[in-house]
Design a protein that fits this description.
Layout lengths: L10 E5 L4 H13 L5 E6 L7 E4 L2 E4 L1 E2 L10 E4 L3 H13 L3 E4 L15 H4 L11 E3 L5 H15 L1 E10 L5 H17 L32 H14 L6 E7 L6 E9 L5 H9 L4 E3 L20 E9 L2 E11 L3 H17 L9
Parallel strand pairs: 1-2, 1-6, 2-5, 6-7, 7-8, 9-10, 12-13
Antiparallel strand pairs: 3-4, 9-11, 11-14, 13-14
This protein binds NADP nicotinamide-adenine-dinucleotide phosphate (NAP).
Catalytic activity: L-aspartate 4-semialdehyde + phosphate + NADP(+) = 4-phospho-L-aspartate + NADPH + H(+)
Organism: Streptomyces silvae
InterPro entries: Asp_semialdehyde_DH, Asp_semialdehyde_DH_beta, NAD(P)-bd_dom_sf, Semialdehyde_DH_NAD-bd, Semialdhyde_DH_dimer_dom
């Protein structure tokens, strides 16, 4: 039970509470016992009036258009980039600290882009913009393994291929994959649904996530480059990505090739990664062990496997990463940001 009468506990709003990230935020707030004085669930007018149980109490979903941000101390935004662009300024103007899950403010110089395990130090003071941005779901697990490697051996280049799950496109993405799979099983020649994924995702592999940029890379690929550089504080980091959607319901995977300045010893690399907070290395002893989206283990960890130092180039190694994009890649990171902000007293004096 996390509802408390303590006047120092924050009043929290979840914008996009009915979505895939929003419902994962609710789960995590309950699981982690994040204390709150009030909890407001907010979504579009389509969901207004829906009843959602949280911590033994029923909460009615409110419409964003009618919501008064003056009621809250922390607002988590997980309702899409255009919604954040339209409504975050109103929330900040009313004094709420915004933790934004969209890409709207990630590259804003006055907005810290935070993975608490990596760059918590940027949260040494409340953000000038009133917003703390949560990175992209593929970037978070990547920087969680790159930072210790950079500190120990120095990084020359990173080449990533992602294998991204349907849940990256929210509840509708999951539904479209499941529906498309059923349709294709009944009739392999049928037209498959393709609103969220085009071409359709069922029984397919699609090397195109988000919009095409002038560079020829997609926005998802561009986000991984720009956000990794900002979080790691390495503006010239040579990192490049191919982002691929695969017919998996949840959890993103990544194949990561890292070239370092100094030669790498596999045992030392495995030991280093194993000591990172909330990172599990699967092939520390059994080289045939590896994580998959269906069976990785602790849902709040970054799972690492297939750790291979190149035999002909000890300055290069491969990693396979698996992490729950809704938790590690979105909601968990956002809740951990809130926990840090509260521990640092960002709201003391600000809690009204
Ligand atoms: N899925 C991921 O792995 C992931 C990871 C990192 C970041 N994100 C980001 O998080 C955001 C949400 O993603 P999601 O996967 O949770 O999507 P989703 O399942 O489609 O949920 C979208 C949520 O936003 C609400 N919403 C949509 N339009 C709205 C409007 N005009 N006004 C108020 N509420 C509105 C929806 O409310 P209704 O139910 O009323 O329509 C729903 O609660 C996106 O910006 C996404 O890029 C997602």
């Amino acid at each position: 039970m996390t509802l408390v009468t303590d006047p120092t506990a924050p009043r929290i709003a979840l914008i996009g509470a009915t979505g895939a990230v929003g419902s994962t935020l609710i789960e995590l707030i309950e699981e982690r016992g994040l204390r709150y004085r009030e909890l407001y669930l907010v979504a579009s007018s389509r969901s207004a009036g829906r009843q959602i149980p949280v911590g033994g109490q029923t909460h009615e979903v409110r419409s964003l258009e009618d919501f008064d941000f003056g009621l809250v101390d922390i607002a988590f935004f997980s309702a899409g980039t255009s919604v954040s662009r339209a409504w975050v300024p109103a929330a900040v103007a009313k004094g709420a600290l915004v933790i934004d899950n969209t890409r709207a403010y990630r590259m804003d110089p006055d907005t810290p882009l935070v993975v608490p395990q990596i760059n918590y130090a940027v949260l040494d003071r409340p953000p000038g913009s009133g917003v703390i941005a949560n990175p992209n779901c593929s970037t978070i697990p990547l920087v969680r393994v790159l930072q210790p490697v950079e500190r120990r051996w120095g990084i020359r280049q990173v080449v990533v291929s992602t294998y991204q799950a349907a849940s990256g496109q929210g509840h509708q993405g999951i539904e479209e994959l499941l529906e498309g799979t059923e349709v294709a099983l009944r009739d392999p020649d049928a037209d498959l649904p393709s609103e969220r994924f085009s071409p359709p995702l069922a029984f397919n592999v699609v090397p195109f996530v988000d919009e095409l940029q002038d560079s020829g890379f997609t926005l998802e690929e561009q986000k991984m480059v720009q956000e990794s550089r900002k979080i790691l504080g390495l503006p010239d980091l040579d990192v490049t990505a191919t982002c691929v959607r695969v017919p998996v319901v949840n959890s993103h995977s990544e194949a990561v090739w890292v070239q370092t300045q100094e030669p790498v010893d596999r045992a030392e690399l495995v030991g280093l990664l194993s000591r990172q907070t909330e990172v599990t290395v699967h092939d520390a002893e059994n080289r045939a062990a590896f994580p998959t989206p269906l069976k990785a283990g602790h849902p709040d960890h970054v799972h690492v496997g297939r750790v291979r130092v190149s035999p002909h180039n000890p300055r290069g190694f491969w990693l396979w990463l698996v992490s729950d994009n809704l938790r590690v890649g979105a909601a968990l990171n956002a809740v951990q940001i809130a926990e840090y902000a509260l521990a640092r007293g960002f709201l003391s004096g600000g809690v009204r």
